[in-house]
Amino acid sequence: DAGVTQSPTHLIKTRGQHVTLRCSPISGHKSVSWYQQVLGQGPQFIFQYYEKEERGRGNFPDRFSARQFPNYSSELNVNALLLGDSALYLCASSSSRTGTDTQYFGPGTRLTVL
Amino acid sequence: RKEVEQDPGPFNVPEGATVAFNCTYSNSASQSFFWYRQDCRKEPKLLMSVYSSGNEDGRFTAQLNRASQYISLLIRDSKLSDSATYLCVVKSVGFQKLVFGTGTRLLVSP
């Protein structure tokens, strides 16, 4: 069975540009969450989407936005990139909105902002 | 104060050693607790959930003390393949936000 997939795997952008990262959850999973992991730190929660609606938002500026499509795939958009946005962006999927089921992470997109 | 605190290490141990990691969390509303393992430049993977009664999975034992808001992971008979970063994770009831600690790096040497 396919796991969570993310694209692209690597991305290099310059300050001020915008970026779109994509995630496809495990088949049957309706919840997608996004995390940012800066080098040397644990992942930090950005958003959760369930059934195409935002269900949770972390402490990130409005430059970060996301959406979920009818097939439950998701996009994370970051505008006006800053050097500090350089990080590994992880997508996680699970089958429920609030339950204790396991979240499965994708391999991540490594974003470098120059 | 960080919501989940861990000793970043690294912990350098020889093969066969027993090593213990500790973690504290500050949100008393936390309901679910986990240890994730993350290999270098890879995604985190669930190692085990942690229950109040304590639980064991092979060489790994996890304990939770809700009163002290303290979580531990014990690895017995360390293998070279155990070298990784171990992330302590808590989740509050209500939605799927996982709160990660900084991670503890383990290096097992021959």
Task: Give an overview of the whole structure.
The complex is a heterodimer of chains A (114) and B (110). Helix content of chain A is 0%, strand content 50%. Chain A is built from no helices and eleven strands. Chain A has strands at residues 5-7, 10-13, 19-24, 31-37, 44-50, 53-57, 64-68, 74-78, 87-94, 104-105, 109-113. In chain A, strands 2, 4, 5, 6, 9, 10 and 11 form a seven-stranded mixed β-sheet that branches. In chain A, strands 1-3-8-7 form a four-stranded antiparallel β-sheet, with no helix packed on it. The termini of chain A are far apart. The mean pLDDT of chain A is 93. With 110 residues, chain B is an all-beta fold. Chain B has no helices and eleven strands. Chain B has strands spanning 4-6, 11-14, 19-25, 30-38, 45-50, 55-57, 60-65, 70-75, 84-92, 98-100, 104-109. In chain B, strand 7 (60-65) and strand 8 (70-75) form a beta hairpin. Chains A and B meet through strand 4, strand 5, strand 9 and strand 10 of A and strand 9 and strand 10 of B.
Shape of chain A: globular
- Please state the oligomeric state of the protein chains shown: heterodimer
> What structural category arises from helix and sheet content of chain A?
mainly beta
Q: Topology as H/E string of chain A? A: EEEEEEEEEEE
- Whole-number average pLDDT of chain B? 93
**Termini of chain B, distance in Å?**
37 Å
Poorly predicted spans of chain B: none
- Helicity of chain B, as a percent range: under 10%
Determine the structural class of chain B based on helices, strands and strand pairing.
Answer: mainly beta
Helix segment count of chain A? Answer: 0
Number of helices of chain B: 0
Distance between the termini of chain A: 37 Å
Rg of chain A from C-alpha positions? 13 Å
Strand runs of chain A, count: 11
Name the biggest interface.
Answer: A-B, 29 and 23 residues
Main sheet makeup of chain A: 7 strands, mixed
The fraction of residues assigned to DSSP E strands of chain B is: over 45%
